């Protein structure tokens, strides 16, 4: 690890403070979200990507704009998808935890609690699209990498990539959400994922260019999980 335990805890505490501030904002923004039965179902959200929905495993061709292909974007379905990704992050952190040291384990547990809070928040505005389990397709795709983690550096690298992909996923969602309430709520969570990635990158000793790989703005490209600089396409990982 390239940070002292004291510095790692300090950076993580800063992110935790920011997280709690942002979640209060999420609650305020979500109060403006009105989910009703007339919204299209999760199936409708994915229908526009049916041509690529068969690509469900890591290693297939990139699907950079699968979510954009949907003609009628359902905001509640996007929230349900985001909830499933957050629950997958919780499960992934839990799976990687056994190889972490006493210095990094509390930080991982803190970030895992943030993801659970995010999942709960998205679920609260997802209506009938709310889920109760991690995204199954994503967990299947992450399985080989998770099972191959044997040390702390590998676990931190895995988490670093996943946090970036979550941020890129939400950046893409912001280009698709129709209701300002949903967009504002999602915008409060995106920077928390980004700050997670920054802390993990610093712990790994990554140069600034790698910690901020897409520059000042998050990428809004979506893919099948093989590209660390692209978000997670719901056509590949249906909730």
Keywords:
239 residues; globular; 2% strand; two-stranded parallel sheet; Ferritin; mainly alpha; 8 helices
- Biggest beta sheet attributes: 2 strands, parallel
Element pattern in H and E: HHHHHHHHEE
- Helix tally equals 8
Structural class: mainly alpha
| Cross-sheet strand order for the largest sheet | 1-2
What's the shape?
globular
CATH architecture designation: Up-down Bundle
Helix content: 55-70%
Terminal Cα span: 35 Å
Q: What is the number of independent domains?
A: 1
* CATH first level: Mainly Alpha
Q: On the 0-100 scale, what is the average pLDDT?
A: 84
CATH T-level fold name: Ferritin
Return residue spans where pLDDT drops below 50 for at least 5 consecutive residues.
35-72
- The Cα radius of gyration reads 17 Å
Strand content: under 5%
Let me know the number of strands: 2
Characterise this structure.
The protein is mainly α and 239 residues long. The chain has a single domain (5-32, 39-232), classed as Ferritin, CATH 1.20.1260. The chain is built from 8 helices and 2 strands; from the N terminus they run H-H-H-H-H-H-H-H-E-E. It has helices spanning 5-30, 42-47, 75-96, 105-125, 136-147, 152-174, 180-203, 208-211, and strands at residues 222-223, 231-232. It is globular, with a radius of gyration of 17 Å.
